[in-house]
Write a structure and sequence with these properties.
By secondary structure, the chain is of the alpha/beta class. 38% of the residues lie in helices and 14% in strands.
Length: 237
C-alpha cells in the first residue's frame, strides 16, 4: 500500500489542480457523464459507465477528462469502501478522430499508471460499446501502456445489447434499456457528491511528491512506460 501511495502522489504532479470549480474540470463534467450504477451484478460487482454527451471535439479536453476520471474514482472509492470488484463500460458513441487528436501520450501513460498501479480496486471487466471504426488507432495508443492482465479483461462490442452476455442489462440506466434512473439523473447526483468532497480534494491536492528533492532520476516521467509526446506525432499504419 505504501508503494501504491508513493506512485499515486507522484502521478498527481503531472495532473495538477483537481478543484471541482476550475473551468477545465467543470467543462469536462458538462461534456461527459461518469456514473456508478446502484444495482450490482450477480457477483456483487459495481458497474461504472462513462460516455460523452457533447460530441463537439473542439470543446473536448483530454487532460480535463483525465482529471475528472481521477476525481470520480476517488469519490467512488471513498463512498463504496471495499467492493468485490468493478465492471467498467465505456460508450464511444459520438467519439471522432477529432477527439483522438486531443489525446496526449503522457496523460495516457499517467492514466494507465493510475489504473494499473495506484487504483486500489479490483477490475473484473472493461467493456467498450458502440465501438468506432478507428478503434485500431485507439489501441495503438493505449496498448503499449497496458499490462497483459488488463488486456485480458478488455472487450469490444457493438450495441449495448451485447453486454447481456456479461451482466443483466437492467443494471444500466433507462437510456440503455435498463431499470436504473436516467443518465442525467445519475450524473447529477454524482456531481453533487463530488461537490461535497471539495475540501477533501483541496487537502489531497497538497499531498504531492516534491520531485526537486528526489535523489536520482524522476520516478514516473520516462521510466515507467518510456514514451512521451502526443498522438499528433504518432505514426500509425
Amino acid at each position: 500500500m505504501a508503494k501504491i501511495g508513493r506512485k499515486y502522489q507522484t502521478t498527481l504532479i503531472f495532473l495538477p489542480d483537481k478543484s471541482v470549480r476550475t473551468h477545465q474540470n467543470t467543462n469536462s463534467s458538462s461534456s461527459s457523464q461518469m456514473m456508478a450504477m446502484t444495482r450490482t451484478t450477480p457477483e456483487g460487482y459495481r458497474v461504472l459507465l462513462y460516455r460523452l454527451t457533447d460530441y463537439d471535439s473542439g470543446k473536448y479536453s483530454f487532460i480535463g477528462m483525465t482529471k475528472a476520471f481521477f476525481m470520480f474514482n476517488d469519490v467512488r472509492l471513498a463512498e463504496d469502501g471495499l467492493e468485490p470488484g468493478y465492471v467498467i463500460v465505456f460508450d464511444l458513441k459520438g467519439a471522432t478522430l477529432g477527439h483522438l487528436a486531443k489525446v496526449t501520450l503522457t496523460a495516457v501513460r499517467k492514466c494507465m499508471i493510475y489504473v494499473q498501479d495506484c487504483h486500489p480496486a479490483r477490475l473484473k471487466g472493461i467493456h467498450v460499446i458502440n465501438t468506432v471504426a478507428f478503434i485500431d488507432k485507439i489501441l495503438a495508443i493505449v496498448k503499449p501502456f497496458m499490462k497483459d492482465s488488463l488486456m485480458s479483461i478488455l472487450h469490444f462490442h457493438g450495441p449495448v445489447e451485447e453486454l447481456e452476455k456479461y451482466f443483466p442489462l437492467e443494471i444500466l440506466p433507462e437510456d440503455y434499456g435498463g431499470k436504473s434512473e436516467s443518465c442525467e439523473t445519475i450524473h447529477a447526483k454524482q456531481q453533487a457528491l463530488v461537490q461535497k468532497y471539495t475540501n477533501w480534494f483541496q487537502q489531497e491536492e497538497a499531498m504531492k511528491v516534491d520531485e526537486s528533492k528526489r535523489i536520482g532520476k524522476r520516478n514516473l516521467e520516462v521510466d515507467s512506460y518510456g514514451a512521451e509526446g502526443s498522438f499528433r506525432k504518432l505514426a500509425i499504419d
